[in-house]
Amino acid sequence: MSVLTFTDRGIYCPAGDFYVDPWRPVPRALITHGHSDHARNGMGHYLSTDLAAPVMRHRLGDIDLEVVAYAETRQIGGARVSFHPAGHVPGSAQIRIEVGGEVWVVSGDYKVVDDGLSTPWEPVRCHAFISECTFGLPVFRWTPQDELREQINSWWAGNAADGRFSLLGAYSLGKAQRVMHLLDPATGPILTHGAAEAVTQVLRDQGLPLPPTIRVTPDLDLKAHAGAMVVATPSALHSTWARKFGPASTAVASGWMALRGIRRRRGTDRGFVMSDHADWPGLNQAIRETGAQRIFVTHGYTAAFRRWLEEQGYDAGIVSTDYAGEEVFSQDEAPKDIIDEDALDEAGE
Amino acid sequence: MRDFAALYARLDQTTRTNAKVAALADYFRTAPDADKLWTVALFSGRRPRRTITATALRDWAAEKAGLPLWLFEESHGIVGDLSETISLILPPPTQDSDQPLSHWIARLRELSAMPEPERKAGILEAWDSLPGPERFLFTKLLTGSFRVGVSQTLMTKALAQATEQPEAEVAHRLMGNWTPETTTWEGLLHSGEARDDTARPYPFYLAYQLEDPADLGDAKDWFAERKWDGIRGQLILREGKHHLWSRGEDLITDRFPELARAIDWLPFGTVLDGEILAWDGERPMTFNALQPRIGRKTVPKSLLATAPVVLMAYDILEQDGHDIRLAPFAERRRRLEALLTDLPVEAPLRLSPPVRFDTVDDLRDERLRAREEGAEGLMLKRLASPYGNGRKKGDWWKWKVDPLIIDAVMIYAQSGSGRRANLFTDFTFAVKNGNELVPFTKAYSGLTDAEFRQITAWVNKHTVQKFGPVRQVEPAQVFEIGFEGIQASPRHKSGVALRFPRMLRWRKDKPVNEINTLDDLKELLAAHG
């Protein structure tokens, strides 16, 4: 029997009778990370890393959640299970599952570069690797972190010199904090949209090195904060909420900003090429370093990436899942049927 | 190249006109002359010729990146732009270069003249010396498809600021057939009189579409004539020669040899603005008759016989060698009439006849008669107005007839390119013929980006079959298709060809069985063809 099978509820392990990141209610779920397309409501029992737990509790409320540290092993029925850093967001994991000596790894979402906040990705040797491929085409190659720091800070400094706010759209779990961590606090204060602030507070309480932020409330004196950085969800950038900042400069941080057409369609002044998913070199490096011969690819450019892997000598297949990848458009501006209807506010990191 | 890439990034990052003008003006104040000249040339459509095929560039880039061609093509499909795809898939550069734009253009021409192996090596070397944005622009120059969201008006404004000259003066200087090889920055923008090149045309004055006739105010202030459906042209007679310019600033003198005879009746030192029309001796032929003459540099005798042209003149910009654009329209019209009234029929010149009216309501009626007159609407010109520069609101209006309309169902969809890559934007539409659907036109424009996103999602879910990039979809979405004219066409299955088809509205309310029929199309053909 296969270590994992693919069902309409999610990725299933028959030997341990559990699911990984299921999208329908199941008795027992192992969760790679807290984004809403991976950690959903309604599971009987949850297992995640200790680092991912606070955000999951914050988002899913009072759930039956058991935690493990990275690399700690658990025996669940006939399966030996452990969680390993995926580098996607703080607390995110790849899940290693071993049954009768055969090892499979579910990548969840991952990136191989160190973002300064998430525990950096580590390769896990395995026989079969289930990999996301949101950006599985060779046109995706991320801007190095140092260059991103320079680009974002000089954009901010320029706006601040003109007395304009800098509105930066970044998903509230992971990207928002990664951006904050890169900001030069000497330029000015950092304001936050409510959705970003809530998650930031959870992560800050957990001990992550995040700069002080000020939540934008109706009674905040904006004039006193002219030139500030405002970290918001991408969907908030074009909302009435954003208008209170006057003629601000806007930007989005996303892997999709690598493509000029999408950047222009997104309609912000700037687009920073920053993703918490692996780029093309990253995907290829990760797959190589697992040593796996069998690769299953999920969400993203699956057909092209699978064919590429086949030509590189891998035994590759496609698994269709309900994970969202990284959305080009945030929910409120996307036509309803483009997006997964179950996905909540943060779907798509 | 760094300055130029920085300029491009500033222009690309904003949709605000003032920010674009400021970026251009800054550049025109600081960049080296040779670069500035090339920038003006590129932004006004004077691109270097393409000398390397897209296929070769694709092959070299894929080979250098170590990728199979199918994966390159897959990526190209997603990105939508060849140069961008190439610049993205190549590995990061290993060399550093700080050469200016003019250097790379000169290099490009050197390479064009070399045999293939050297040429390829040179291109690969250039790619390896330029970081992402510069590599993208260099490749854009190679493919000859350099376009940027900068209008001539905008660039004129920036140049006027940077060189401290009036905009009209700059606009006039930029006209004509100069290239960076035939002039210098000094020569183009600073030397002597703008008109020292005898072939140089004046900037065309353009009209806005009239939405509300109430904007006209008092009918007595206006002159009306037909809006002719041909090619806008400026005929220049100076110093023993004649020159004909199209509105796209192409010199088209040789394509319309009939107009050479204008010098038999008009004095040198005359410049006329008018419409080139195929003429049957009495009235204009359809635009379709003119079509075969547009693309040809030399005209066969047979075509001269079947589609002879005239210039339907409607304005005079220069008389006796004097620029009279600032004289009121009424005065220019008087001079034009005096010049053209008693010409014999063999002269290739006609005076655009006035449309008589007393009230705005008379104009409404005249507008509805446009199609029977072989025109596409009315032109309204304020009697007191000078001949302006570019498009300005208030003095000249075009008032086109409403388009012809057919409700049709979408049957094929294809994705767009550039800004619209990843979206389905090119559709084929069909009408009913009994139980059969007959395709009759394609259309690309008329929907908002939000609607294109919505239809894209729908196409993804309702594809019946794929033929390469083309999706056959369930015939379910009904659109109102508007067009300006209809012609019999044996090449099309439907038997008709449309002029300027576009989507006017997405009729989500309309079921497919209520779309128009092939008979409805044939009726329109009988009435307007």
From TrEMBL, chain A:
InterPro entries: MBL, RibonucZ/Hydroxyglut_hydro, Xnuc_lig_assoc. Gene3D superfamilies: Ribonuclease Z/Hydroxyacylglutathione hydrolase-like (3.60.15.10). GO terms for molecular function: exonuclease activity; ligase activity; RNA endonuclease activity. The keyword Nucleotide-binding does not apply. Signal peptide: none annotated. Its EC number is 3.1.-.-. It comes from the Bacteria. Keywords: Exonuclease, Hydrolase, Ligase, Nuclease. NCBIfam families: Xnuc_lig_assoc. This is Ligase-associated DNA damage response exonuclease. It comes from Rubellimicrobium rubrum.
From TrEMBL, chain B:
One of its GO terms (biological process) is DNA replication. It holds the Pfam family DNA_ligase_A_M. Its EC number is 6.5.1.1. It catalyses: ATP + (deoxyribonucleotide)n-3'-hydroxyl + 5'-phospho-(deoxyribonucleotide)m = (deoxyribonucleotide)n+m + AMP + diphosphate. The keyword Transmembrane helix does not apply. One of its GO terms (molecular function) is DNA ligase (ATP) activity. Residues 302-433 form the ATP-dependent DNA ligase family profile domain. InterPro entries: ATP-dep_DNA_ligase, ATP_dep_DNA_lig_pp_1105_fam, DNA_ligase_ATP-dep_C, DNA_ligase_ATP-dep_cent, DNA_ligase_ATP-dep_CS, DNA_ligase_ATP-dep_N, DNA_ligase_N_sf, NA-bd_OB-fold. It is an enzyme of class 6 (ligase). Keywords: ATP-binding, Cell cycle, Cell division, DNA damage, DNA recombination, DNA repair, DNA replication, Ligase, Magnesium, Metal-binding, Nucleotide-binding. CDD domains: Adenylation_DNA_ligase_Bac1 (cd07897), OBF_DNA_ligase_Arch_LigB (cd07972). This is DNA ligase (ATP). It comes from Rubellimicrobium rubrum. The lineage of its organism: Bacteria, Pseudomonadati, Pseudomonadota, Alphaproteobacteria, Rhodobacterales.
